[in-house]
Amino acid sequence: MAHVHFESELEAARIEQVRAALASLAPVTVGPNPPVETTVLVSGRPPDGVLDRQPLKAVIVPWAGIPPQLLQDIRERPHLKLYNLHHNNLATAEMAIALLLDCARQTTLSDRELRKGIWRGRQGQGHGYLLAGKTAMVYGYGAIGKQIGRVLEALGMKVIGVRRDPSGDWKKHLSECEVLIVAAPLTEETKGAIGHAELSALKEPRLVVNIARGPIIDEQALFEACEKGAIVGAGIDVWYRYPKDETPTFPSQFAFQDLDNVVMSPHCGGSGDTTEDLRTRDLIELIAAILSHQNPASVNLETGY
Q: 283, 18 in Cβ contact below 8 A?
């Protein structure tokens, strides 16, 4: 018999919503210790030994990214199916657009200066960069990337979307692009895929946005390009160093916080007023599809997404 277990506690109201929706398919439990009869586990970091329990059939990561250790653990147990969610696609795409517009129009910088009484860029004094007519490369053209592309086209931009390309042929198009937006999953292939050479290959004025995962862009290469002004604007929502507690923590070993041409966001791109509603909805739909043997799309264990 099927049994669904959520390792991390959800709000009581959401658990009841899940239970009600799945009542005819399986019981739903919550807590740090999955019952031995669990067949579908909702967890990004399962406790030791749980993956080897005989009844377990599927693991659902209740967010977008796949933890590297979990991916490796599932690869060693190919009888298990691994799933993740894409409930935050629209919110993340909107964050990419927000960061790009901020960098192009220098909104945050102007706000900081006007609060000091400095009227920067008034009356067309070379303020900002017009996006219409420019070309953007969206590195990672899945659900998030395609939504970004649609909005960019509506702004009058040409869009070059890049999907998985181990050959590296995508790099030859960088010289056509003034804008680079990173929206790819972090995998062995994409980690460090964008470094000094790729950033330098972009066409001036060079605007870069990362709403995917920090390490896809080489940390030092990005900082040096921003510091030297080779990149006129960078919007960054995903980072290289994260807080372990409430202690104030800078997001990199390099001082991005000192650069006026960098707009910084604390990895909140997927958040919004409806995020948890969408997460709950997508979890219900995915679990129901698994329990009903509808064979929903799972993570490709080779590529990691």
A: yes
pLDDT at position 127, please? 80
- What is the spatial distance between Cα 206 and Cα 225, in angstroms, rounded to a whole number? 10
> Secondary structure of 13-64 in the HEC alphabet?
HHHHHHHHHHCCCCCEEECCCCCCCCCEEECCCCCCCHHHCCCCCEEEECCC
Going by pLDDT thresholds of 50, 70 and 90, the confidence category of residue 123 is low
Average pLDDT over residues 15-44: 96
Buried b (16+ CB within 10 A) or exposed e, 68-98: eebbebbeeeeebbbbbbbbbbbbbbbbbbb
For residue range 215-229, list pLDDT tens digits in order. 999 999 999 999 999
| Residue 194 per-residue DSSP state | B
**What ranges in the chain are assigned the alpha helix state H?**
12-22, 68-75, 89-105, 107-114, 143-154, 196-201, 219-227, 275-291
Two tokens at 191? 């980690």
What are the structural domains, with CATH classification, of the chain?
Answer: 4-87+274-291 (3.40.50.720), 89-264 (3.40.50.720)
pTM of the model: 0.92
Mean pLDDT calculated for residue range 64-81: 94
Whether residue 86 is predicted with pLDDT greater than 70 in this model: the reply is yes
Which structure tokens are listed for 84?
A: 């993740």
CA-to-CA dists, residue 43 to 32, 84, 300, angstroms: 10, 10, 18
CA 112 to chain centre: 28
Task: Using the structure block, give the residue that is written with the tokens 């979307």.
Answer: 161
